[in-house]
Amino acid sequence: MRAHAKLFLASSNPGKLAEYRALANSSAFSFPIELALLPDFDALPSFEENAPTFAENAAGKALHYSRHGGGLIFADDSGLVVPALGGAPGVHSARYAGPLATNAQKIEKLLGEMRGKTGSERNAYFVCAIALAERGLAKAIVTDRVDGEILEVPRGAGGFGYDPVFCFPGLEKTFAEIPADEKNQRSHRGKAFRRLLAALPSML
Predict the structure, then answer these.
(1) Is residue 39 within 8 Å of 6, Cβ to Cβ?
(2) DSSP codes, 50-105
(3) Is residue 157 packed enough to be buried (19+ CB in 10 Å), middle (13-18) or exposed (0-12)?
(4) Could you report how far apart the first and last alpha carbons of the chain are, in Å?
(5) Could you state, in order of their start, the residue ranges of all structural domains in the chain?
(6) DSSP character for 46?
(7) Among 3.90.950.10, 3.30.300.30, 3.40.390.10, 3.20.20.80, what is the CATH number of 5-203?
(8) What's the CA gap between 172 and 175, in Å, rounded?
(9) Is 147 a catalytic residue?
(10) pTM value?
(11) Angle between helices 188-199 and 14-25 (to 10 degrees)
(12) Can you tell me whether residue 164 is helix, strand or coil?
């Protein structure tokens, strides 16, 4: 077994790396784990996420970048699913209102589509899929979700994306209203990443 684990995130986004580092630091792990951005990510051939499921997009991305960089490479795909909208925004969550849309514009479109829907029609869930690969071979694919409902108006100043309209049951607060450390314990990304960490020792 390796003395420690080093995972490279297939991204150039330092904010996403910081979130994963916070998740790793808040998780009980039997040996040290180091997370870093994949070196020269923006210079590598890009991967087009056009698969119909979160898991396929995450796996495709991890496999693609693992062929261009050494070590353990992980990638994710996540989004919001509203059954009453036929599963939308789904895998198109990031570009739901257009490739250059702001978070506010995405929320505006979502609330427009939800207009007139009540009760269980406003149920929704966030999904996160994370894939781990090494030199073109898949090592693991994990997914998890968190259920909630879509509010009629945004609330809270934290979070990002659809967080201000996603109300977490029991707390009666949106993901934009709770502290980051509490969100990490409850979120789809936090749950999925903890599943990956739990499986990691058997792969080292």
Answers:
(1) no
(2) --SSHHHHHHHHHHHHHTTSSSEEEEEEEEEE-GGGTT-BGGGGGGTT-TT--HHH
(3) exposed
(4) 5
(5) 5-203
(6) P
(7) 3.90.950.10
(8) 10
(9) no
(10) 0.92
(11) 60
(12) helix
Tokens representing 153 are 């108006």
Instruction: Give which of 34, 35, 37, 32 is closest to 1, Cα–Cα.
Output: 32
pLDDT tens by residue, 91-134: 999 999 998 999 999 999 999 999 999 999 999 999 999 999 99
Structure tokens at 12: 């150039």
Among residues 76, 77, 144, 163, the one annotated as catalytic is: 77
Q: Please, which residues have CB within 8 angstroms of residue 200's CB and are 6 or more apart in sequence?
A: 5, 33, 132, 140
Sole residue written with tokens 């997009």: 57
pLDDT tens track of the chain, all 204 residues? 455 789 999 999 888 898 899 888 876 666 678 999 999 999 999 999 899 999 999 999 999 999 998 899 999 999 999 999 999 999 999 999 998 999 999 999 999 999 999 999 999 999 999 999 999 999 999 999 999 999 999 999 988 899 999 999 888 999 999 998 888 889 999 999 999 998 888 777
- For the chain, the residue count is 204
Of the candidates 81, 76, 36, which has an alpha carbon nearest to the alpha carbon of residue 56? Answer: 76
